[in-house]
Every structure is written in structure tokens, then in C-alpha cells.
Specification:
The protein is α+β, with helices and mostly antiparallel strands and 130 residues long. It contains seven helices and three strands, in the order H-H-H-H-E-E-H-H-E-H. It folds into two domains: 41 residues; 66 residues, no CATH class. Strand 1 and strand 2 form a beta hairpin. InterPro entries: DUF4342, UBA-like_sf.
């Protein structure tokens, strides 16, 4: 059976693969779209789901870390580490000035792991829908 571009495009719409991988899967499955999707899932060529899972796992892992700034044992600031990094990236000159000022005032910087009762972003989203 000859494989045409329409079939390849249809497979690529459903599964995140290259043209070459889509063509190969269709050829191995005689142009059958469903069998090609199953083949790609079994050979782990569908990376979109895997990448989403890895991103969610990483986000959940680092979501419990907090940046704390304290002076004389009293906590001045406690922020989520991911949020701290984003603020630092988007406001670099101001952030550097604040860090320098805190260091001059002999503040202590710590990154601590504070486990939260909800560890999964997906669980949080599902709870809000109910």
C-alpha cells in the first residue's frame, strides 16, 4: 500500500512524531492509522506525553523548596524557589541590588525543603474543578 502525505499529516496531528517516524510507522502497519498509533506508543516515539510527565514531576519536586532570607534568626522573606528564580530573571538589576543590600546587612540566605500537603499540581487542579 502506498503511503501519502495526507495519512502522514493525519498521524502527526494525533501523535507528536516527525514525518520520517510517521511514514515508517504507516509503512510497517500497511497504512492503518490506529495500528500506527499503537506501534508508536509501544516504541515510545510519542514523546509529548513523556515530556509532560517529566515536566510535572520536576515541577512537583522543586515546588516544595523555599528561599528564605533571615537576619538575627528572624525570617524576613520566604518565597517559593521557582518564583524566586522567575523574579530574579525578569528583574535582574533590581534583584542583584536587593541581594547585594541583604549581603551588606549580613542577612542569611537558605534554601529549605518544606513538604506541602498537596504535592501534585494535577491534584490541585482536579480539586479546584470539583
Amino acid at each position: 500500500m502506498s503511503i501519502d502525505l495526507k495519512q502522514i499529516d493525519l498521524l502527526r496531528e494525533r501523535v507528536n512524531v516527525s514525518y520520517e517516524e510517521a511514514k515508517e510507522a504507516l509503512e510497517k502497519n500497511n497504512g492503518n492509522l490506529l495500528d500506527s498509533i499503537i506501534y508508536l506508543e509501544k516504541t515510545n516515539k510519542n514523546t509529548s506525553k513523556i515530556n509532560k510527565e517529566k515536566f510535572t514531576q520536576s515541577l512537583n519536586k522543586y515546588n516544595n523548596y523555599k528561599l528564605t532570607i533571615s537576619k538575627d534568626g528572624e525570617t524576613i522573606l520566604k518565597l517559593n524557589l521557582i518564583l524566586s528564580i522567575l523574579i530574579g530573571l525578569f528583574t535582574t538589576p533590581v534583584s542583584l541590588l536587593c541581594i547585594l543590600t541583604a549581603l551588606i546587612l549580613k542577612c542569611e540566605f537558605k534554601i529549605i525543603n518544606v513538604p506541602s500537603p498537596t504535592t501534585s499540581c494535577n491534584e490541585s487542579i482536579n480539586l479546584s474543578k470539583e
